[in-house]
């Protein structure tokens, strides 16, 4: 699938502290596909060289899982750009970047998200994500953290997607954003929001035909997760190396 040109660097930097604005995928694409083997992998064959990705930022292309085209209840992998452009939008807005998150409390009623939420929900497989704690409450000094599962296993975030047609070129562009909810006790120590993490038993229901699976948009159990302080090197998406995940004192 052809995608539009990524946003200017200045626009990207402005998104770096928005929750949830960074993820990491330590797995190769082949490993990720095996971990989510219920989904048909054909739609992401061309993404192999992009992973692992240790510092995944908005505007990049990711493998996501959507309902199969035949609506049989199975999943299929497709590629999509992080930053939602709704299908009804007439042109790509250049003044500000598209939303990368949608709040669970208002997703069913917000005009930007409600259509996609009702019919185009997706899973976003990752190995973990990053968050920044405002140390002094002023926004001037922030400590980054990495968050993952205690057992190191990959997991899926709840997302919504849409397909937008560029009126100038006719290109079809698939984009997505993540759903966020109030934090667990663990996450509340560093931030007032967290991404919606889905249990594997809820995957089929989230991407299925149900119009409003609102009860799935809830904090994930803290006892299954872990987080650790990391260095500020993660602040620049240009730094995409394994040592970003190294813990610091």
From TrEMBL:
SUPFAM superfamilies: BB1717-like. Keywords: Covalent protein-DNA linkage, DNA damage, DNA-binding, Hydrolase, Lyase, Protease. GO terms for molecular function: lyase activity; peptidase activity; single-stranded DNA binding. The keyword Lyase applies. GO terms for biological process: protein-DNA covalent cross-linking repair; proteolysis. Gene3D superfamilies: SOS response associated peptidase-like. The keyword rRNA-binding does not apply. Its EC number is 3.4.-.-. It is an enzyme of class 3 (hydrolase). Belongs to the SOS response-associated peptidase family. This is Abasic site processing protein.
């Amino acid at each position: 699938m052809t995608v539009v040109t990524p946003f200017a660097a200045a626009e990207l930097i402005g998104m770096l502290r928005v929750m949830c604005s960074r993820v990491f995928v330590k797995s190769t694409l082949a490993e990720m596909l095996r971990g989510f083997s219920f989904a048909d992998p054909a739609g992401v064959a061309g993404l192999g060289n992009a992973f692992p990705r240790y510092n995944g930022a908005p505007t990049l292309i990711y493998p996501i899982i959507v309902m199969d085209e035949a609506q049989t209840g199975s999943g299929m992998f497709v590629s999509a750009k992080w930053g939602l452009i709704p299908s009804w939008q007439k042109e790509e807005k250049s003044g500000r970047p598209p939303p990368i998150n949608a709040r669970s409390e208002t997703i069913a009623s917000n005009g930007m998200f409600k259509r996609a939420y009702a019919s185009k929900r997706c899973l976003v497989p990752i190995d973990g994500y990053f968050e920044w704690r405002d140390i002094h409450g002023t926004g001037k000094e922030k400590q980054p953290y990495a968050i993952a599962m205690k057992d190191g296993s990959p997991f899926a975030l709840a997302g919504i997607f849409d397909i937008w047609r560029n009126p100038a070129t006719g290109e079809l562009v698939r984009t997505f954003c993540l759903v966020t909810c109030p934090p667990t006790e663990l996450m509340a120590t560093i931030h007032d929001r967290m991404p919606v993490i889905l249990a594997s038993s809820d995957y089929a229901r989230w991407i299925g035909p149900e119009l409003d699976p609102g009860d799935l948009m809830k904090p994930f159990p803290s006892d299954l997760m872990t987080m650790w302080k990391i260095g500020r090197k993660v602040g620049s998406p240009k730094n995409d190396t394994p040592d970003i995940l190294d813990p610091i004192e």
